[in-house]
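Quick one, T. Sequence first:
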Amino acid sequence: MLRTLFLPRLLVLHLLLIGVLVSFTLLGRWQLGVFEESGRPQAAADPAPVDVTTLTSVGTGFRVEALRRQVTASGTFDADRQLLVADRTADAERPGGRASQGHGYWLLTPLRLADGTLIPVVRGWVASPGDPAAAVPEGHVTVTGRLMGPEPSDRIQRTGALPRGQVATVTTAELINVWPGERIRTGYVIATRQVGGGTPEPRLVAVAPPTAERSFNWRNLAYALQWWIFAGFAVYMWYRLVREAVQERRKRTAQEAPDGPPDEGAGGGSGQADPANRAVAGTATAADRRPGPR
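Structure tokens:
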């Protein structure tokens, strides 16, 4: 069988199969990549900053189209109401709570606007509550950042009860209870520029620009499966052709093999008996015919 597999015409077939498998596998992987890319969020328009009061209000829901928009806010920070958002990293995309336990804190400071309302501002990130960068800038400031919607209270896995002055999420409903008697705008701002110009400054929290959701192009996934099915069919055809070649060679070998000598039995084949055997047979017959004693 091995000699058959290495026949010149089958060697060409083996090489052709390898080329087909490599090509079809890569083509299928390419279509799968196009399919995966089609469902990834795409960068959306990122308009110039607008005043935060044009996108937020008090006592109403958060507008989805305002998510991650660039905004500016001018006013004074209320240092007495600053909070620490526990178990956070310097990346807004990373989950908080148990997943980031012990990694640091967001500085959440309310900014009092000209109309008396408060907009929560994440000024930056510090590693510990006693970090000197946690000091609140004094006087009138202008904050530039991205507007975020209230975090769902069940977004993170809480690590247990937090000390006074710390919260687990930035949720408008919770802040209303923490800052009683204040008119708080829905949502919060993550600062993208340092505020106050003091030294040292907290590390800014990274926040991505707005994105547009896209749906998957399922046709590309079908194309990928199609290429891989073709590769499987090529393997099947290779198997069929190799098997037929092996069977054909075996049949040809059996036909070309010489026939064995005929079996020689007692008197078989010639039709003539041995003379000595005939003499013995005749003597036995005469003895049988001889009469016995009476």
